[in-house]
Amino acid sequence: MHGLPPFTPVASSVRVRAVNIALGLWLFASTFLLPRDGGVGFSTWLVGIWVATTALLALYAPALRFLNTALAGWLLVTTIWFPHTQAWVAFHDAFVAGVMLVVSLVKTTPLELRPRDAPA
Fold this sequence. Notes:
This protein is mainly α.
């Protein structure tokens, strides 16, 4: 046996990273839509912005996806560690963190930057 073939991306880079961008933006928006205390709300707000930004950058530099893995881990830890005003909000944050974690581990190929055609 020569071993397994190398992993090839199953989905396109844009679709996979778009999921994490959407999750980051939702996390940011949910800070204002769901009942949260000051510290938990600020952490959630900050993680949402960082996840969306990092996922956008990971389109061109796929290794940055591991920052989203760390951010998802941070969100999960803060969800478990800090008290929430309502249990379903904590469950929401833990669920979003789990989905972000799984999506951030999907390997993709980088998008190529191509120069625009010069006007004729």
